[in-house]
Every structure is written in C-alpha cells, then in structure tokens.
Predict the structure.
Amino acid sequence: MNINDYQEKLNQSIDPKYQKFSSSLSGSLLPLLGIKIPLLRSLIKEVKDDKSFDPQKLKLNQYLEYNLSYLAISLERLNDIKSQMEFLSINLVYAKGWQVTDTLVSYVRKLSFKEYFPYFKDLIQSKDTFTRRFAIVLMRRFASDKDISKAFTYLKDDKEYYVEMAWAWLIADVMVYQPSQALLILKRKQLSSTIKKKATQKIRDSYRVDEELKLKASKI
C-alpha cells in the first residue's frame, strides 16, 4: 500500500459526527479528520508490516491522524525498547494532542520501571506539552511499583492543563495500588492546588478506591 492509498482509506473512514464531537474536546494543535481510534488502530495494523509503506512520507502536521499513524507505525517496526525510546525522544514533538499520547503508549513494548525511569527524567523536562504528558501517561504502567515515588520528585506546578490532568490521573492510579504513598503525595506542600483538586476528584470518581480512602483523600 502506498501513502496515497493509506490516506484515501483514512478519508473513507471519516465520521463527520465524531469529527465534530472529538474536535470540540481534543485540545489538539492540529485539525482532526474524525476517525474513531479503534478503526484507526485497524488501519495502522494493516500497514505496519507492509514494507512498501513508508510512514515518513505521511504529511505530518496536517491532520492529527497522520501524526498518530506515523508515530504508531514507526514504533511497531522497532523491535526493542531502546530503539523505541530513542525514536520517541526525537519524534514526540509530533504528538500534537492527548489522543496521540494516550493512544501511543499501547505501542510501547514491555519494559520495567528501572528501564523507563532514565527516559522519563528526560521526557518530563521537555518544553513540549504533549511530550511531558506522554511521559506521565506511560508512567501509569508503574503505579504499583515500589519505586513510583521517584517519578513524583519531578512533580511541579506545570500550568498546562493536559499535563496537570496526567499527573492527577497517575496519583489516582497510585491510590489504587499504594494508598499510603498516594496520601503522602497529596500532602506534599509543593503539590499545586490544581493538581491536588483534580487528583482528589479522580479518586472520588474511581470505583477501584474504597470509600474510606476517598474520605481520607478529600480531607487532605
């Protein structure tokens, strides 16, 4: 399949209603064609092993789905975590929305906290908003890891909504697996009131956290 064929398949998969709905919520720096993620995943899977298809020929920064396709297909073709993370460190600047970052993590191969943490330290200090969000969303894999507190040494008042939401999400996940650790994080003086409020709300909304812990989090 060539690039033109792939882009034509994308065009044929556009859902106008979904496009209108998702665009209003996306916060994306790029326009959306309006393709539901499960369908986009299927199209990515269709070409990932097709050697005649070169993802680098996609017209990047034209539509969000083009960027996501480029990133996901490229990751699928990399066979080890070192190659994937090196690719991401250069190319995450093309992750122009939360739909990209949050979908992209599923294409990252299995790795340990110890393997990921050096990359996390670099990504979380990026000037790019969605690179930082990706760093945190991938860290959710390790919410139950005994060393998760190391990630929170990089927690600060970010001012970017999508980064703050990712931190809140991570704190809520830690509450599920390590509640004492999550409560300590919520008590940190350097934790911004915005992230604290968002994390507490996510904890209250979680069906995986019992009522006693929800009450404790709310009182902090």
Observations:
- The chain has a mean pLDDT of 94.
- Residues 161-177 form the longest helix (17 residues).
- The chain has two domains: 1-93, 111-220.
- The CA atoms of residues 143 and 173 lie 6 Å apart.
